[in-house]
Automatic annotation (TrEMBL):
It comes from the Bacteria. The keyword Transcription applies. GO terms for molecular function: DNA binding; DNA-binding transcription factor activity. This is LysR family transcriptional regulator. It holds the Pfam family HTH_1. It comes from Cupriavidus phytorum. Residues 7-64 form the HTH lysR-type domain. Keywords: DNA-binding, Transcription, Transcription regulation. Belongs to the LysR transcriptional regulatory family.
Length: 311
């Protein structure tokens, strides 16, 4: 076992960046170090841990099995060290810090603008770095300490991952208005007769809408699958395609004469939009402050300016 006396604890900060970025140059940028300095530190870490840490894989470097095992414990240990060595009280106005968040472009649309304005006003030197991943990917990144929090729809949280409800959301449908001039909406038969646009990270995964349709004995024909909510409305313009998605993401279309927006012609349960984070950050006052800002931004996101999907 290595003695702590002979270990440069700064190497753990480099290791944290390497595990998160999986790329020497990006880790160097994150740490404001030169690439040779990070390469040298990686060599020392490999010797210290007797493990390659990063190995060549398809498309670039990937984590070794040992590195995967270290991700969670390392993030937890460094979080505690930062609390131990940090100031006794968190002062947003003077704090300098970067937080890593993950969310879909839907989450970015309905929460991020208000969150960023609140953060910039109260803590101008705090930065937000936002990424996107699948629900499973975001949950794993929170658990491993790669990100600080995630916003989304999460059916399961692993041990150690905490959650807070941000708001309840319902579904709405949108079509080209020219295709429903007489009724302004579709009944169940017409809905199932048409082809659909699906927003999904995994193109073959059955979502809540398909589950509800299957209970009716039907099946949607998917004409196009896209990973981003924001592009989906543009895909139905000039076609007879149907988009069924989160109501808030269609708010700007309700006053657009080119589109018809209506409730689904069958029962669909509402869903909960949630914030998740790891319990290792519970005692960090900066994390607690940011979580409060997220809750406030979500609570007021219906009361400010209209949501817009158009550039």
């Amino acid at each position: 076992m290595n003695s702590l006396r002979g270990i440069d604890l700064n190497l753990l900060v480099v290791l944290e960046a390497l595990l998160a970025e999986r790329h020497i140059s990006r880790a160097a940028l994150r740490l404001h170090l030169s690439q040779p300095a990070v390469s040298h530190a990686l060599g020392r870490l490999r010797q210290l841990l007797d493990d390659p840490i990063l190995v060549r894989g398809k498309g670039g470097l990937v984590l070794s099995a040992r590195a995967h095992e270290l991700s969670g414990p390392l993030a937890e240990a460094l979080a505690q060290v930062r609390i131990l060595l940090g100031p006794s009280g968190f002062q947003p106005a003077t704090a300098r810090r970067s937080f890593r968040l993950a969310m879909s472009d839907y989450g970015a649309l309905v929460v991020l603008p208000r969150l960023l304005r609140a953060v910039r006003k109260a803590a101008p030197n705090i930065d937000l770095v936002v990424s996107q991943a699948s629900r499973e990917g975001m949950t794993a990144q929170v658990a491993d300490g790669e990100i600080d929090m995630a916003l989304g729809v999460f059916s399961h949280q692993p041990e150690g991952v905490q959650s807070a409800e941000l708001f309840r959301e319902s579904y709405a449908c949108a079509v080209d208005a020219a295709t429903v001039r007489d009724t302004g909406r579709l009944d169940q038969v017409a809905y199932l007769a048409r082809s659909h646009v699906l927003v999904a990270t995994h193109s073959e995964r059955m979502d809540a809408i398909d589950t509800a349709v299957a209970k009716l004995g039907g099946r949607r024909k998917i004409a196009c699958v896209v990973p981003h909510w924001s592009v989906a409305p543009a895909l139905i313009a000039g076609t007879n395609l149907v988009l069924t998605t989160a109501r808030r993401s269609l708010a700007a279309l309700e006053d657009d004469p080119r589109y018809a927006v209506f409730a689904p012609p069958f029962a669909l349960d509402d869903f909960t939009f949630t914030m998740i984070w790891h319990q290792r950050t519970e005692a960090d006052p900066a994390h607690a402050w940011l979580r409060e800002r997220v809750l406030a931004a979500a609570a007021t996101q219906d009361s400010d300016e209209p949501i817009s999907l158009r550039g």
